[in-house]
Amino acid sequence: MSSTLPPEPAGPAPGPNVVPAPVPIPTSGPPELWTKDDLPTLGWCIGKGIAKFVVMLFISVLVPLELLSTIFGPGVLPIQFPLSLNLLIYGGSAVAFFSGASTATQTTRVYGLFKFLSSAVKLIYLFLLALVGIIVVDASFLAITFGFRVLIYLFMIGTALAALSALVTLYEDYKHPGDRLPFDFPLSRRELRARQDAYNRSIQMGPEP
Amino acid sequence: MSGRYDRPMPKLWRLSRYIRWAGTVSAVIVLIFVVTVIYSAIVFGSQASSNIQVGSNNNTSSHGGGGQIEQVAPGQYEGVLDVNITNPSWYPIAFNISMNALAVNGPRLAWGSSGLVTIPSGNTAPVDVYLHVPSNTFTDVRLLTNNTPVTGWLWINGTYATIFSMALAFQVNSTWGAPFQGLAIVPQTPAPPSGGSVTEPIAVNFTNDASTPDQGQLEIQVFPSGGGGECGSPTIVPISVNNGQSYMETEDVTIPETCNVNGGYVVSTYTSGGLTVTLPQESIP
């Protein structure tokens, strides 16, 4: 413990009645006194990943399916959205799966890989969506084709940057395993202060016998 | 316990985070852009009737403006449909207009296009749709003398805010109102010859079913049977018939006594402004 504590403040050695100055809590920088015990358990991460998978499945598959059947379904409105149901189901499920998997593996070295796969699958899904990219309103006397392909390409920029970020994380986990963990899972401000106070008290009480 | 007082954030971690932030910011910007585009498009759509005005330009082109059609060369008729479009939205609109008119079970009567028009945000721009009317429109389909069912198509292809493409296709089924509907030019019993010539009364009947008045002149020429040149000089009759009104007049045409018009035919030519069209000929019994 003492080998990793911060160095003593500079200056003359304090006398027996001198209270050492408390170590200031940095307002920025890494969390202090962080240990691997502060990481969430793998079980917790898997649970969180499953929850995210379910939410993403709802957002990317179930809601679009419901929309397609209520708005674009045959005989509902004269609107056609030529999106394949297979693309919606399989693509949306893949997006949800990798999104959940990346969350579940956030404390492990394969996090970067799953994060990258999640972004890559999203990119492919968006690209396939862009290939469809039109909505057709076809009434008897009027036909409107509305294209939004470029819009999807614009959204792909953010996803591509996320993929790039994941690649950096993948490389970081390979070169410096575990370095990111204190920053990905920082202590809460209250916990940080409590540990700082405990540390200061231990300084005041002196070394253990 | 491993204290981390003296360790800065890892560079790769920071780099990864900055890239991720950039991606998030770009997605938020795109999202805000989309919301404003949709709002702006709704504003434009709700005021479409006041933003689009047809026939309001002072067109000075060599072609007929204001929807008037004129002859630019033998057998070639052109006109310009003037449209003023205001873009009150926040983003530019770029589009072109194309149109096509087909007679039902018949040939193409007219077509036109505007070329690419770009209207910046908050601007008003004139849009001229150049119409081309082939000469056979007037001869094959007899549009001038027969009300004809017509199918019209109007296409508008364009982009809004640069990124959204839009293609509209309207189909309009209507009946073309002929300006000389039921034209009948019927020679009457000629007066006795006098001084080497015969006065041939010719009854001219038609109804103007077009949407514009017939204002111009009608030139009537009589040709003998068996070919040959025109009998005498053409008779020019000024006409002014409002739309929806009928015209029933008898014009006296002076013909040389030597010209045998029995079995011949009458040719009439309508001239109005820059437009000159030959109406279908009528046989003389």
Straight-line N-to-C gap of chain B = 120 Å
Quaternary form: heterodimer
Extract low-pLDDT stretches of chain B.
1-6, 56-65
The helix content of chain A is 55-70%
Overall, the morphology of chain B is rod-shaped
Q: What is the residue-mean pLDDT of chain B, rounded to a whole number? A: 80
What spatial form of chain A do the alpha-carbon principal axes imply? Answer: elongated
Number of helical segments with 4 or more residues of chain A: 6
What Rg of chain A do the Cα atoms give?
Answer: 26 Å
Provide the β-strand percentage band of chain B. over 45%
Q: How much is the average pLDDT of chain A?
A: 80
Spatial separation of the terminal alpha carbons of chain A: 15 Å
| Spatial arrangement of strands, main beta sheet of chain A | 1-2-3
The string of secondary-structure elements of chain A, in order, is: HEHHEEHHH
List the chains of the largest interface with their residue counts.
A-B, 47 and 37 residues
Give keywords.
heterodimer, A: mainly alpha, disordered N terminus, B: 285 residues, 15% helix
